[in-house]
Amino acid sequence: MNGRPEERPSVAISAETIAHRVRELAREIDERYPPDEPLLLIGVLKGGFVFLADLARAIRRPLEIDFVSVSSYGTGTTSSGRIDLRFDPETEFGGRHVLLVEDILDSGNTLQWLVPRFLDRRPLSLEVCTLLERPGAAEIGVPCHVGFVAPEGFLVGYGLDRAEEFRNLPYIGVL
Ligand code: IMP
Ligand code: MG
Q1: Could you tell me which residue, 3 or 174, shows the higher pLDDT?
Q2: pLDDT at residue number 170
Q3: CA-to-CA distance for 25 and 14, rounded, in angstroms?
Q4: What is the spatial distance between Cα 6 and Cα 142, in angstroms, rounded to a whole number?
Q5: Which residues are within 5 Å of ligand 2 (an ion), measured at CB?
Q6: Whose CA is nearest to atom 15 of ligand 1?
Q7: Averaged pLDDT for residues 20-46
Q8: Whole-angstrom Cα distance, residue 95 to residue 79?
Q9: Which residues contact 53 (CB under 8 A, 6 or more apart)?
Q10: In angstroms, how far is CA 164 from the centroid of its own chain?
Q11: For the CA of 107, the nearest atom of ligand 1
């Protein structure tokens, strides 16, 4: 057994509310791109994996899926701004519309670092879809589809973790 069974994050956004919003975002994305032009979803690991899985299945048009993994080093609670690429998507960006799928836009550091590097690869277009965005996140310079304004507090669940715990909660919880 891992985890502490007595610690149960309180519900900030329910599974039903998330599912409803994911369907709306999927429709928005379906309408955004010409149906005959290739769409590539890039999930930002690890936190984006649950959102990506649900979003991809709610989008009706053909698409491809790949992942990127970045690590940022800091003191634990604050990001130092130093970022390393840990896993680089293998799919060619040229000739594809690329949509980056992220769990939460917090400071914006991660995407501010990724976006110019991805634009260098000359996709047909580059946009971001994030489930959550905190007020005050930095501008990332490309269009961003946002699921929810992030509730206050440290959020876990639906892919989000605290020290690798709680990623499998079906709702967004607050600790
Ligand atoms: P940014 O580079 O500051 O935008 O950080 C984004 C990343 O920090 C997210 O992809 C998450 O992995 C992590 N993060 C930020 N806020 C939270 C939170 O409340 N809970 C869990 N992870 C978070
Ligand atoms: Mg993340």
Answers
A1: 174
A2: 98
A3: 17
A4: 42
A5: 44, 47, 103
A6: 106
A7: 97
A8: 34
A9: none
A10: 16
A11: 3
